[in-house]
Amino acid sequence: MRVGTLGIVKSAARDQAPDQSAAAFAHPSEAQFSRLLDFYDVEWRYEPRSFPLREEEGRVVEAFTPDFYLPAFDLYVELTTLRQSLVTYKNRKLRRLRERYPDINIKLLYRRDYLRLLERFGIDPRHSSVLPPVEKVLVSEADLRRRVAELGAEITRDYAGSRPVLVGVLRGVTCFMADLIRAIDLPVTLDYLALSAYDGESGRLRFTKDLDEDITGQRVIVVEDIVDTGISLHRLLQYLQERHPADIAVCALLDKSARRLTNVELAYVGFEIADEFVVGYGLDYHQEYRNLPYVGIVRSS
Ligand code: IMP
Ligand code: MG
């Protein structure tokens, strides 16, 4: 068992012997996933627990050992980079696990999800330098306009009599923020935060731009383009809480809830979307496509 991020032991070991750091993992994708979690400063444990699934004559004959446990989210994560036939077998085991241990929170990340996650963080495992085409419009300009107006009206009603501070997360929030503030009929102030991007190797999630204003005692609305795993939002909310605002709510244009790994409450959601990679209306693929007036799906090969 290895203990991640906050454990000094592991960081020191990694600094001294970077080439051997992956040796304890059964699969390179697990090592890569651990680096991603390190970047986010999410504490992890590798295979910390086996769950007996079946006993015969008092002996365990089948067990399930999830790859990772993330204490902060009380979540087990199983990475499956296997072929479909083996995935079916694994799914059966997972079902049995859920039946026997209904209180255990476990997520399966399929190979496809996992590659998309890496790609999203700028790591393209297929080393493709060709910009994929936008396959289709997911949310049209007209639908965006209508929904953003509704969100603005809801916020106006819910925050009547107060002066909320809208905190946008750069850079994807650009279009949404610009339209949302004009749909809110209240005195509002604006501020922005920016987070560093994962580069596949070094570093930790950092704020590359801090708040400019003091939010102590203020009513804060975090404005996000899209919430996917929710890990960056989780971190961001912790960071804002430490500044003692009166309260915090989150307004996200897009909610990819199928991929959520954290428990973050979204007070306002523009659209729930399926697990697709989307671009436009501020959202990018390797910094491109932000200026599309609609939200579109990028074709994944
Ligand atoms: P999370 O920490 O996994 O929730 O990641 C959230 C951030 O990843 C968003 O604020 C976006 O910047 C980016 N992101 C997630 N999904 C997409 C997508 O489909 N298209 C473009 N950016 C995305
Ligand atoms: Mg973002």
Report on the structure:
The protein has 301 residues and is α/β, with parallel strands linked by helices. Helix content is 29%, strand content 26%. The protein is built from 7 helices and 15 strands. It has helices spanning 8-16, 28-39, 84-100, 111-120, 141-158, 174-182, 231-241, and strands at 45-46, 51-56, 59-64, 68-70, 75-80, 106-110, 134-139, 165-170, 189-195, 207-209, 219-227, 247-255, 268-272, 278-279, 295-298. Strands 10-9-8-11-12-13 form a 6-stranded mixed sheet, sandwiched between helices. It has a 4-stranded mixed sheet with strand order 1-4-5-6. Strand 4 and strand 5 form a beta hairpin. Helix 5 (141-158) packs across helix 6. The longest helix has 18 residues, at 141-158. The radius of gyration is 21 Å and the shape is globular. The two termini are 36 Å apart. Mean pLDDT is 85; it is low at 1-22. Magnesium ion binds at residues 169, 172, 225.
Question: Topology, pairings included?
Answer:
Elements: H1 8-16, H2 28-39, E1 45-46, E2 51-56, E3 59-64, E4 68-70, E5 75-80, H3 84-100, E6 106-110, H4 111-120, E7 134-139, H5 141-158, E8 165-170, H6 174-182, E9 189-195, E10 207-209, E11 219-227, H7 231-241, E12 247-255, E13 268-272, E14 278-279, E15 295-298
Parallel strand pairs: 5-6, 8-9, 8-11, 11-12, 12-13
Antiparallel strand pairs: 1-4, 2-3, 4-5, 7-15, 9-10, 14-15
The chain binds inosinic acid and magnesium ion.
Inosinic acid is lined by residues 120, 169, 172, 224-233, 277-279, 283.
